[in-house]
Amino acid sequence: xxxxxxxxxxxxxxxxxxxxxxxxxxxxxxxxxxxxxxxxxxxxxxxxxxxxxxxxxxxxxxxxxxxxxxxxxxxxxxxxxxxxxxxxxxxxxxxxxxxxxxxxxxxxxxxxxxxxxxxxxxxxxxxxxxxxxxxxxxxxxxxxxxxxxxxxxxxxxxxxxxxxxxxxxxxxxxxxxxxxxxxxxxxxxxxxxxxxxxxxxxxxxxxxxxxxxxxxxxxxxxxxxxxxxxxxxxxxxxxxxxxxxxxxxxxxxxxxxxxxxxxxxxxxxxxxxxxxxxxxxxxxxxxxxxxxxxxxxxxxxxxxxxxxxxxxxxxxxxxxxxxxxxxxxxxxxxxxxxxxxxxxxxxxxxxxxxxxxxxxxxxxxxxxxxxxxxxxxxxxxxxxxxxxxxxxxxxxxxxxxxxxxxxxxxxxxxxxxxxxxxxxxxxxxxxxxxxxxxxxxxxxxxxxxxxxxxxxxxxxxxxxxxxxxxxxxxxxxxxxxxxxxxxxxxxxxxxxxxxxxxxxxxxxxxxxxxxxxxxxxxxxxxxxxxxxxxxxxxxxxxxxxxxxxxxxxxxxxxxxxxxxxxxxxxxxxx
Length: 574
Known about the structure:
Blueprint: H1 2-20, E1 24-29, E2 37-46, E3 65-74, E4 79-82, E5 87-89, E6 100-110, E7 112-115, E8 121-124, E9 141-142, E10 146-150, E11 157-162, E12 164-165, E13 180-186, H2 188-194, E14 199-205, E15 220-224, E16 248-249, E17 254-255, H3 257-272, E18 281-286, E19 299-300, E20 304-305, H4 306-321, E21 331-336, H5 338-349, E22 357-360, E23 383-385, E24 390-392, E25 394-397, E26 403-406, H6 407-417, H7 426-434, H8 456-466, H9 468-483, E27 487-492, H10 500-511, E28 521-525, H11 540-543, H12 547-562
Parallel strand pairs: 1-11, 15-18, 15-21, 21-22, 22-27, 27-28
Antiparallel strand pairs: 1-4, 2-3, 2-6, 3-5, 6-9, 6-10, 7-8, 9-12, 13-14, 14-18, 16-17, 19-20, 23-24, 25-26
């Protein structure tokens, strides 16, 4: 009898859940929404409570689910529908989602219309001071997370209202301190390209004793990397003694990593203000744009002349305000990952404007090893093809070589985040920087996002314009004399994104250079993952925090050996 009652009870619960279940979603703009409503609508379903679903999308296996669709010309109060035909990640179709309880949320990533100088009109998400992040971009609309029972067989629809708005951000200038300054300029070059006002900004770490030595003029070290909300890794106060250390870092396998980061920042401040530490201007640039959190610091058909704008507009203004020496022999550049590629690219494309680059774990510096793809020989980016089998190419690994996701996984996620290369993420920004402009005004795809089929004509354009190893090989007769002694590259041999593969090829070329020999350095970290910067004495979770510690003393060595006769090597050594 008890078993019968239990079965009847579960039957009632199941029928009730089925009656309340939903199988599709409608998203409504609040009636008070202002402005044009063009952009990307995103819908999230999560099995995890306690964290908003919009923050739980990733490449790895523990990602939650999302769907995306383009929206154009909508008005306040109107609705858009997600149904069984909407494209998703990681499940492609809504019909593939298992029936069950989920937390759901919607977000609208707003686009702006640009009428560019090349004659194209495009709709893209302008950076609004957050560093091109769709989750937090000011003005983006989102809904309150809601728990529902989803069943793809249900004919009912769930209404979600976009009645919340990401707030504006505080003025970066308010974060300035005695040592950290903020510089922002309107770029004439970029404004002309984009057909609207465009700005560049930078955090400048000024030397200890700057005010006490008005006669001093300083070398400049350009620290390239992702969008910096403030100057990273420098703190004038130590971490609190009672700072919480209970949080566990999955990436590094240790507890209390946030306190380690804070302590390293304070330790750098102590070094910076010590009597013997070299005195420089250290610069971190904010150059977020409609495609990504930075521009890759080169001129690009799709992004505009960011390389020239940084080199000939922003850096001279910083040197003017903060007494930089302002000559190529006294400028250096370094960085890791994106910043590593930028450091090497800046040195290659502006060989007379920098006296050395230190490139750690750089993004692919030859497209013969575009992570796991040879763009010039492979036909498909997602698979190795055999006569009877396709093997997926890995996209990310851990230090043991265990694959965390495939290259196709990463691109599928970006495709749902944004069509036409508008995801604001890694593969799309490489494409935006390196590709020619397509007929529709958006970057011409290097490969088909769905199939992975590579376009050889686009690959050839990439090769001639942005393959750093190819450019060095092609132009070594003229570039070599300007670059000897300036190139330093560091990478872990278990880089999570296989970036060491391109470094191996570059090293093979550099070792054979003649007339002149490159006289630089290439080094690898044993079992080191992404962001290893050349120090074999420290674990990776420490070395990634010490770019300034590592390279500023190396820069001093280079300055003392290479400065021209009569150069100022004294005023800044206070």
